Structure formats: C-alpha cells, structure tokens
Fold:
Amino acid sequence: MKLNGSTLFWTFIWCIFMGITVGSIGIGAIFPSANLIAKPFICPRGEMQLETQDYHPSPIETVTTLTWYCVGPEGDKTELGIFPMSLYAGTIYGLLLFIVVFVVMQIRGSTSIVSSTPSVDHDIVRRTELARERAEEFRHSAADLGDLKNKGKASQDAMNRMKELKDLREANLISESEYEQKRADIIKNL
Structure:
C-alpha cells in the first residue's frame, strides 16, 4: 500500500479525533490519572489535582463528578475545564496513536511490496531437488537390478554348465585335468 499525502492527512485527523474522544474523554473518565499527561500545557507551574464528589439523587442511584484543579505554588486553586484538558491530553494521545498507526502502515506496506515481488518458493525448489535425487536413485537401482538380472542369468548359466561338466566327469567322458580346467574357465567368466 502506497502512502500518499491524502491518506496520511486523514489518518492524522482520525488519530487526533480518537485521541480526544476515546483517549482523553473515554479512558480519562475511567482512569482519571490518564489526563495528567496534559499537565505541562494546562498547569505548567503548578500541580493538577482531582476532586471527586458523590451525589445520591435517589436511594438506588449514585452520581460521581470529577473536577480537575490546577494548584499553583502559592496554593491558589483554579478549576480546569473539561474541554481544554481533553483537547491537550487527547492531542497528545492522538499523536502517539498516529505514530503507532504510521509505523504499522509502513510495516504492512513494506511486507506487501516484498510479497508482491516475484520470489522463489524454497519449499517447491527443495521438493524438486528431492524428486530429482529420487529419480536418479531409481535409475541407479534399475541399472543395478539389470546388472543383478544379468548376473543372475550368468550365475544360472554357470550353474547349468557346472552340472553338465560334473555329469561329463562322472560319466568319465572327460579327464580330471579337463574337468578342472573347464571348471576354472566357468568360474573365471563369472
């Protein structure tokens, strides 16, 4: 995703709005100390102080009000309005939110650029290499099997020739020296 000026502007406006409404007003109502972030702007020479007051308009209802004061070094107390405090605190929260959103947009943008460029799927490459290796092994094993077949056939032929030679010797059709010589020739050809 390409970040253009319009996208950044509207993202910035949205972050400031969310910082004021959600950050300062919403979270500030639940956790009032979150608004202390605005102290350097609202109460630069004093301390921010929170007072709570509980009212019971009916026996089953309780209303709590929060009032912020800026207490100066001399002890003078000035009530702070919700609008300036929310505006300052919310702007700070909005800027922090904008930084986080901007970083996330940059990261997502860079990953989408990386993922859109043609890349090599290493898993497919590895599988292809394994398939080639297996095919080569198969070729070698097939060749070995052919050699074994040929050797098996040669061995069978040699066995048949040895039996025939033995039969000839037992029938005294060849001499012992001829038998030994032919037997050596058969073994040599294995």
Summary: Residues 5-116 form one domain.
